[in-house]
What does this fold into?
Amino acid sequence: MPRRHLVVSAVVAAVLAMAGCSGADPAIGGAAAMGVATGDGAARQPGPTAAPPGDAVGTSTTTTPADLAEVSTGIAVVAAGGADLAETAGGEPIVRAAEGLPLPVVGRAGEWLEIVTSCNSPAWVQASQVELTPQAAGGGGPGPGFDLSAAVVMLDPGHGDRDWGAIGPEGLSEKVLNLDIAARVRDLMQRSNTVDWTTGTVTSGGDIPAFGAVWMTRPPEGPNEGQFEAGLAYRAELANAAGADAMVSIHNNTVPKVASDIPGTEVFYSVAAPGSDRLAALLYEEVVASLSAFEADWMGGELLGARARINPDTGEDYYGLLRRAQMPAAIVEGLYLSEPQEEALLGTDAVKQAYAEGVYRAVVRFLTTDDVGSGLRDPEPYPEVRTPTGTSACVVPAQP
Ligand SMILES: [Zn+2]
It folds into this structure.
């Protein structure tokens, strides 16, 4: 992967509410940290007791420290005690980043790794202060024959910390809810399962193997239990650097337009990354199937289904996360948190688990079948309107 240079403006480009909850491309898009977990379900923690990074990929190959000395693309998780980030290789520290913070590695100079901070800034870190996982080769292209036990998936809980996302009338916030649901998806992907494809029920143990590596941009075991601020470029770079086979961003919605007979789920796909439309159509089909088991006076937008929003002038993806993704990627907007009945449902374990199982089934089908899903719509021109609102105060989570 070529080295990438990110320009970060001090001015946050805030996105008007018309963008829904996902935000298009603010300089600080939400929160992210990521931890990867090994296929046997054990959470991968930084520090001397962690498994060798090669284990996280779940392959039979072994990565030795000597091999890691050459690695210039992958994920660096800040090790126990924190890690100094510098503006140049060998430069003075600008912050001591908190342990557990994942950093996308985009280049290397000797013992120094070039990374992107959680505030989207280019920086450098010493290899000795991180747990480095090389970019995965992946399980080959999605479709029949794909080896799930080698799959690498990036789960992205939307928003985080001071970016609350949508907030329900009773106070349930997206930043908390999305993290909860994404962690449930990770739990499912880290174990073997049986799926009843008629009812959608997912039970532990069976023929569907645990995935090779499941990363979260904001892991509950990360800094501040996953509540820290992270930019959209940072999130996308993490997925790119990990070599993910797919990325799914978990959100919930706000400000519906009309009553709906079925859950008003929307899924947005990347037009830039091939395969994203099929991933989104499967996510739409499976998440709606899961949520339809519950009762509510559903609300929705004017267009349900698997959608894409593009800049009418350039044809590029409107959403910054999807524009930067180099693998099949989609944003799921599950239910309308702004609606009292739907907020109440989202507060229950049953609905959060159903949402998670829908995402799990969709990703399994995406990676291992040619299924096309349902609800796929053509990309929609979407005018990009941003208003500068102030100075960014994004801070990299510091080691306590
Ligand atoms: Zn959101």
Remarks:
- The first strand starts at residue 11 and ends at 15.
- The chain has two domains: 11-35+138-386, 62-133.
